[in-house]
Amino acid sequence: MQKLSFLIPVILFIALNTFAQRADEIIGKYHLPNDLDVEIFEDGGKYFGRIIALNNFRSGQTKNVNNPDELKKKEPLIGKIIIKDLEYDTEEKQWLKGNMYGPEKGMVFNLKITEIREKEIEVVGSKFIMWRTLTWKKI
């Protein structure tokens, strides 16, 4: 009985640690097809992403000029959180329920990350009934 009471916490620890490692695989830096570099990080069990480099994005655009909110048009793009609230789904083995702000159009899209490979991740963005699958390169 004493072995069993020791074994249960050990098994729970291993199971929880394995889940956390899988969920955290998304953490890192990525180069997006629109030439932005984004860093994904975890905060409170959800995943977020901020712009870390512009790489001459949109011919030198450095401000949030396409935002529909006039007060936000002068905000710098560097450091801007553009990915919010991604959650890891253990059954689907995907990051779901997130959204992403696209500074080139000033729009917010639904976002999910469907697959992680060695040097890239597969991302699906959607708005209403339209969706698009993109590949982001790991930096």
Strand tally is 8
Strand order of the largest sheet: 1-2-3-4-5-6-7-8
In whole angstroms, the N-to-C terminal distance is 50 Å
* Element-by-element helix/strand order: HEEEEEEEE
Q: Assign a percent range to the helix content.
A: 10-25%
Secondary-structure-based class equals alpha+beta
Count of individual helical segments? 1
CATH class: Mainly Beta
Write structural notes for this entry.
The chain is globular and about 40 Å long. It has one helix at residues 2-24; strands at residues 28-31, 37-43, 46-53, 81-89, 94-102, 107-116, 120-127, 130-138. Residues 10-20 have low confidence and may be disordered. The chain has a single domain (2-138), classed as Lipocalin. With 139 residues, it is an alpha+beta fold. It is 17% helix and 46% strand. The N and C termini lie far apart (50 Å). It has an 8-stranded antiparallel β-barrel with strand order 1-2-3-4-5-6-7-8.
Quick summary of this structure?
With 139 residues, the protein is an alpha+beta fold.
Name the descriptors:
139 residues; Lipocalin; eight-stranded antiparallel β-barrel; 1 helix; 8 strands; globular
What's the topology here?
Layout (H helix, E strand, L loop, with lengths): L1 H23 L3 E4 L5 E7 L2 E8 L27 E9 L4 E9 L4 E10 L3 E8 L2 E9 L1
Antiparallel strand pairs: 1-2, 1-8, 2-3, 3-4, 4-5, 5-6, 6-7, 7-8
